[in-house]
Design a protein that fits this description.
Blueprint lengths: L22 H28 L2 H30 L14 H11 L18 H26 L7
Helix pairs in contact: 1-2, 1-4
Length: about 160
């Protein structure tokens, strides 16, 4: 038996805390979660203007809890890849520490060999690589938007 990564990508299971996921798969799943969370926030915002306030607030709370639960599952599996318990993900809820932990989860390489949480993550498919690389596009868009916001206050030549 070998400890080398599998040759075929493992099935993309989001709704489990068992096993491990590597950096690219973590980035891909978090990007999809961010997009799904933004879409859910848009839907609940629209619903809050249609349904009574209490119902809208309950829907918003349930949506937030669902997104946090999936984020925990993804983060726990990434922490497993690093050899840590998934409960360490709760540190992401602490201001400043959470941002540092999120960055570390994205950049630190996982264990190269089988650890207590399972065998090495599967090799990433092309789709995982493309989705994970979309973070670069998103970051670039945020940087450009920030610069454009700064340029709107510059005096214009007539």
């Amino acid at each position: 038996m070998t400890d080398l990564p599998h040759e075929t990508p493992a099935p993309l299971k989001v709704f489990t805390h068992h096993g491990r996921i590597g950096r690219l798969r973590y980035l891909a799943w978090t990007l999809l979660l961010v997009i799904a969370g933004m879409a859910a926030a848009l839907v609940t915002t629209v619903l809050r203007s249609i349904v009574p306030l209490l119902v809208g607030n309950v829907l918003t709370a349930l949506t937030g809890i669902a997104v946090m639960a999936v984020a925990f599952l993804i983060g726990a599996r990434r922490l497993h890849d690093l050899g840590y318990s998934g409960w360490w993900w709760l540190l992401t809820l602490v201001p400043y520490i959470g941002g540092v932990l999120a960055l570390l989860l994205a950049v630190l390489p996982g264990n190269a060999l089988t650890n207590q949480y399972g065998p090495c993550p599967a090799v990433n498919s092309r789709a995982v690589k493309v989705i994970a690389s979309m973070w670069l596009v998103m970051i670039a868009a945020v940087v450009v938007a920030g610069f454009m916001k700064d340029f709107q206050y510059l005096p214009r030549a007539h």
